Fold this sequence. Notes:
Layout: E1 3-8, H1 16-32, E2 34-39, H2 41-48, H3 55-69, E3 76-80, H4 86-97, H5 100-104, H6 107-127, E4 131-133, H7 141-151, E5 155-157, H8 158-170, H9 177-186, H10 191-203, H11 213-216, H12 218-227, E6 233-236, H13 241-257, E7 266-269, H14 297-306, H15 326-334, H16 337-348, H17 354-381, H18 383-411
Parallel strand pairs: 1-2, 2-3, 4-5, 6-7
Helix pairs in contact: 3-17, 3-18, 4-12, 4-18, 6-10, 8-9, 9-10, 12-13, 14-17, 15-17
The chain binds iron/sulfur cluster (SF4).
Amino acid sequence: xxxxxSGMRPTGKLHLGHxxxxxxxxxxxxxxxxxxxxxxxxxxxxxxxxxxxxxKENIKxxxxxxxxxxxxxxKATLFIQSGVKxxxxxxxxxxxxxxxxxxxxxxxxxxxxxxxxxxxxxxxLAGKQVKIIQTxxxxxxxxxxERASGKVRNKIFEEYLREAFFRxxxxxxxxxxxxxxxxxxxxxxxxKIVEEAVKNLEEGDVGKDIDxxxxxxxxxxxxxxxxxxxxxxxxxxxxxxxxxxxxREIARRFNNLYDSIFPEPExxxxxxxxxxxxxxxxxxxxxxNAIYLSDDQQTVNKKxxxxxxxxxxxxxxxxxxxxxxxxxxYHRIFTDKDTVKDIDKKCRNAEIGCVDCKKILAQNLNRFLxxxxxRRKEIEKDLPTYEKIFQEGTEKAKAIASETMTEVRKAxxxxxx
Length: 417
Ligand code: SF4
């Protein structure tokens, strides 16, 4: 049994992607380990410091979502980060011993910036009706750009755009806007559109929200979150690995400078959910393409009907290809194996229509969500009682955090009050 710690930022209602990527794993972990799961409300401020109106409501929704999914306060300690002020104190002390370069060089900080800029550019171009074809590049980038710009005017390949942007972002210190412009024009996008997009990148608000000390230093707060409970393992996706490494480095540095207090936690690698949103893009609130755990039956039915299918299958008697169909991606997870096999065969032989195929999926999704909905109703009827669970959990966490801080202050020879 290990001491495990994991948290989630309260940014809104949870969707199926959250369930598959995080909650499902937590349900297993709480059976085997000493788990602490926390609502990371301070972390929600790192890039959303302007929008605090809905923070309390988001915390409430998170409490309801976790408990209705079966996260069990009898098995795990559930708490709210900002209720344990010791996290902030330890984070401050850690910030004194953390070289700035560790944060600036943190690859996930750079990746987040890259993703933000890239997402903006992609969405901007998509909004301008620039068709994006998803074709992985199979040849040298420069040759491919030549070919794409020569033959397919006004079309870009998503991968090439990514590559173009990647080069512009990483090859120079900042973004090489001139080079980016040239490449986009080479890719066949109208000069006017390119200029508008790049101008917004250069001068606009993109990225401003993460140009703060809080955002740069959030891995230090994360290290404090983990080490204050002397957690031995932290479930993370691959993109979070550098943060765990940083936590280990901070622990090592502290132990070397003062006393050996902190363990070096290990990362428990978890797979990110591959379930796409109903439009095929990554499932996300901001794309308005998510199926929420709190969606009622009618909403789920409607969203499933809107799902994109094999674009080549225009008529009912056209054979389809389930491999390129989003509905099928969902079937693989929510439908039993025999039916999935049957759908695969019938789709390829045009023996089933997409509407019928979607009806089967909607039924299965609703069957999966029904028990969660039932529990949600119970919790909503008496929310204060369930909120109390988190208050008690926060007290429990605080007692441990407070003990660690006494040790830390002693080790650092700080004034005792
Ligand atoms: S029959 Fe089902 S799997 Fe095949 S294209 Fe239609 S929705 Fe997708």
